[in-house]
From TrEMBL:
Protein's recorded name: beta-glucosidase
Highest taxon of the lineage: Bacteria
Domain annotation Glycoside hydrolase family 3 C-terminal: ranges: 722-921
One CC-aspect GO term: membrane
Amino acid sequence: MPRTALLVSAAVLAALLPLSPLSSARAASDPAPVPVDRFEGEVPFAAQPAEGIFTWGGDSDDPPSLQLAARADAPEGAKALTGSYDISSYGGFTHDFAATGPARDWSAHRGIRFWWDGQDNGRKIAFEIKDGGANGEASELWTTSFTDDFTGWKQIELPFTDFTYRTDYQPVGGIDHVLGLTRMWGYALTLPAGVKGRFAMDDVELYGKADQSLRASVTTDSAVRPVEAGGTATVEVGVATTGSAPTDEPVTVTYETTGGTAIPGKDYTPVSGTLTFPAGTASGATRTIKVPTSKNTSPAAARTIPLKLTVSGAKAPAETPQVVIDAHGLPYLDARLPVRKRVADLLSRMSLAEKTGQMTQAERAALTDQGDIAAYALGSLLSGGGSTPTPNTPEAWAKMIDGFQLRTRATRFQIPLIYGVDAVHGHNNLAGATVMPHNIGIGATRDPELAERTGAVTAAEVRATGIPWDFAPCLCVSRDERWGRSYESFGEDPALVESMETVVQGLQGRANGQDLSRNDKVLATAKHFAGDGGTEYGSSTTGTYTIDQGVTKVTPQQLEAVHLAPFRTAVDRGIGTVMPSYSSLDVLGDGRGPVKMHARADMINGVLKGRMGFDGFVISDWNAIDQLPGDYASHVRTSVNAGVDMMMVPYTYKDFSSTLADEVKAGRISERRIDDAVSRILTQKFRLGLFEHPYADTTGAAQIGSPEHRAVARRAAAESQVLLKNTGGLLPLKKSEKVYVAGSNADDIGNQTGGWTLTWQGSSGNITRGTTILQGMREAGGNVTYSKDASAPADGYDAGVVVVGETPYAEGVGDVGNGHDLQLSAADKAAVDKVCAAMKCAVLVVSGRPQLIGDRLDRIDALVASWLPGTEGEGVADVLYGSRPFTGQLPVTWPRSEAQLPINVGDPSYDPQFPYGWGLTTLTHVPRGGAATLRALGVAAAAAERAGADRTGRELVAEARLIVQQKAGQRIGEAMAEPFADAGHLLLTGRYGEAVHKLTEAYRAA
């Protein structure tokens, strides 16, 4: 990197610069430098949307200190930007231009330069510039670096040609991946971590005249051009310019076929020549190069023909394009053969490096280069939460994934990628997709058929964007609502979780896997094996988490009955993949103590694959092996030998693949184990039809977010609503009633959808297309007035609806004690108090877990657990206004206080605010009767049980439950709550007679 090196004082510099031949040459041909920052006070310390300089860091100690200090030796003016730092994670500072002003055009210049007061610490300092997008914090980041290996002032010159697109982090996931320089929003510096230091900086400016190679580049239509043997590959070579201006100078491209695995003269006809784009050529003009290949009927692996391009007058393509003669004639390519034979044939041909590549999964945004897909024979890519293309549209997803799949064509056996996403309540990473209620709400519906339909809608929308693999469903049994993932669980009862596993068929189709190749089905993932919902409060060792990723301490009997049961059902349903938990398992009596699940061979190899007979593959959680003890080699060795088949190593895919190969060569991992893992992975790829159809089938894209799909989500939202209290029959509301609506969650689609919506943690606000609860009420024809904080006058209304609850979170970030609790916010409490003091009121709690509301319960006429209903707020309005009845039941116990937690159905001491299974109804016909009626129902339920008449049995138990609730009202004591909750569990296990018996016991106690 060429840089000026003048290590002199400002006074000496002033004397020398007029005599510098370099300066004279520049003065004659270059434009005058353009100041960006003089640090004399013209740019304030401020942040977006104003123009300003601001600091940032990984934690509260990491942002550096900054000041504008008077310096006698300042290279420009009287002051310089100075500061100090002591960074443990990451930190630095930024100058953003005003978001409300226009972006700036830097395209006329060669680069950016500044003066730096060197400390000679030998550390690299990253310098990034912000290109395109909406503003400085929503732009593309392009980066380079310089080394502080000098003392005193030095002018650092950074040509724009040295900047590369950041692959480890982008605030918006990328815009066009082109450093246009015409819409610049500022710059940022990342200071060295792990060392205390100070710095001074002065006079940031644009310098020099732009080379045409900065404004013009040669492109090819594709980095990989597959062709069948005997066909002619056509490669388009084009020229593009910044701003689409014609070229100033001629551009020539000399080409030749050279190298690769194909044999010239035998596999193809060599070509060479020169393409010329004269001065004045329009941006986007193209020329073609044709590469003829030979017809070869003998079975063969794919062969590559690199097309070397030598460019003059423009920037050359980032990589050499390759023509690839497709593999053909090999048995594994024959779709008529059984999958097991195809797998065996392909496996027999693969090298160790190709096998380890198949076991490696990388985050798509972390690829150093897309060519790494072929170079490392990667088996899989994923999008983590919020890792999306730009724009975030179905078309962009399909195009992005097709581009990744194209890279696999440049490998010997052209094994397709399997791309995965966390579509945990609909295709939740995609803007405009249908977002379902979270699993906690689906559990509240007690409707297995509806759960299957939600899975089917999710699968159709995911597959239509080119994605064949979903990291869902979560089969955790949530035993402590302080857990930040509790809403990902269908409930606290393993029987309830098992009953909702119809979602697996919605996602995958038939249990034998024959539907996986359909364009509306995806491979599903049962997670997190096993016990993640049982972690003890305070046992987590991950950052500031309190419960997530902690320790589950259970007896062998509890492990089997609670945490393993849902996975037995999933295996029976043909689940394709299983993901182990981050958490540790401590099985009492086994003498091992807590052991991370990714290291438990007894559970993964022994129980899951052995006793349960799971024949899919096991995928690790995000970077989970890094939590194992020992060095990296032991992480790899332990997890693979424990039975993990594919490793989610988002940023360390190169290290993992090479370490895994080294462990095999050293004999610490057997080749047989590798073959088993790869066979399992390949089996699912064949079942998905990826070898025949690796690219996106977007015929279903028009249905994404369609009225038909949203109708399913609307029904799910309606059925998920649990009516906990309804004094005087306040609900359903009449459309003629004048209704006062308040609360933080009444009109917030982000809060309504929760975490894992567009981003990992989710966010408040208008983040995606959908209908809020308030909008749903208006669209239902309600006479509604809205005041978020209840500050509007509250006189003259027939009823109030206060919609309160949580803001979004995910995983351990949402753990109680990690900045979260189970209390309503002060603003929500104030809204409830004001509205409920002024009129009859219904309170809707929009949350991922119960909220402690007992101290206000007497003042509330109707209380609804709305959970996180997704994008279709009309579903909530449907039950509020009676077009659908309330039928939801609590999937978890609603506690009186946090001191009661954990509290679950079946506990020996059980005195909740509302028991598991509680849920009033607004059905027009509510059954009536007393002890005699319950006795008759019990006899009939037992008879139905003996006859295997499940539907009749469930209906009889439901009738008995409603009779008990009607008598109990709000008089819910321990003697009533315990048998009532037990009945809900017995119902789900098919013991209908016993369930009615328990309800009769609850009736007597009520």
